Amino acid sequence: MNRDIFVVVEHLDRATADVSFEMLGRARELAKATDGQVVAVAVGNDLRGVAAELGAADTVMLCQHPSLAHYTPEAHQRALAAILRARAPRVTLVANTAMGMDLAAGLSGGLGWPLVAYCRHARIEDDRIQATSQIYGGKILVEAQVEAPSALLSILAGSFPADAGRAAGSPVIEEVPPPPAGPARVRFKRLIRPEGGDVDITRAAVLVSVGRGIQSKDNIPLVEELAEALGGALASSRPIVDQGWLPKTRQVGKSGMTVKPKLYVAVGISGAPEHVEGMRGAELIVAVNTDRNAPIFNVAHYGVVSDLFDVLPLLTEKLKAAK
Ligand SMILES: Cc1cc2nc3c(=O)[nH]c(=O)nc-3n(C[C@H](O)[C@H](O)[C@H](O)COP(=O)(O)OP(=O)(O)OC[C@H]3O[C@@H](n4cnc5c(N)ncnc54)[C@H](O)[C@@H]3O)c2cc1C
To answer: What is the span of the domain harbouring residue 82?
Structure first.
């Protein structure tokens, strides 16, 4: 049985996605348990920049071709399936992102290997692959045990620290020729970028997030002022975006962004599973809510049971005075 742990590297526009580093860090732990190697596999074109960032791997396999420059499920699945079939690693980690969900399911079907999706945790105990999956938007956690010699696990972003996968190193670089072209029912037409000019909340160290408790668009500056006083950015729950009070780029949660700031202040947010899914990875969570039974307090490290219209002006004033 092959003992290696493979990581399918997700990248876009020559930038490696954070979840790839998270998976590399986790792969190092899994490889300790199997006594195998960590192999990062990247499919695309002109991957020099991406390869240079994968120092945490023992080997980097690159499958490069102009026809693979943009993600299309069939071409990328074909390239990856050829590599994985030939090597049959013990575990292959794929990101549970829009691209990764598509890839992992196709690879599982094509290779006949089991796939455990929506993984929050992955480990190997007594030579068995074990994974914890999060389903129903985080309402239920499922423990899966895989008996097969090779398995695919798709990993939710924010499940592991990315720093562990950013190590500097000199992995062996292996170039893999692309497989012959096949059917291409899905074609790449163009990349639609998010609205420009807005803050990237996934990179902010401090986020103050506003929910429906704010009652009206006119009250949002109250939360914005707190964000400024903390040197952070403004984020929100989905209803705020649905009402058109803030742009979609600020939405945290299942259908928005996954964020991992050092500090996340949830203001007037109930803590629905779809919201919590996007922010539970924050290092420190502070919640302000009038309802002491609001589910947000189940994930918050500090809770303020109070009216946000009383608390926020006081907090902002004190922070400004302390500067
Ligand atoms: C498929 C799907 C995807 C979804 N994706 C997302 C997503 O990505 N992100 C997301 O956020 N939601 C998402 N949702 C919606 C989610 O289920 C919730 O409806 C939403 O998160 C609730 O937003 P909220 O907490 O702002 O509002 P509410 O649930 O209405 O909560 C408002 C909170 O404010 C408190 N409050 C009221 N007045 C005050 C006051 N004066 N001071 C302090 N507190 C006060 C209340 O006690 C309450 O807890 C999704 C839903 C579905 C079905």
So the answer is: 5-175
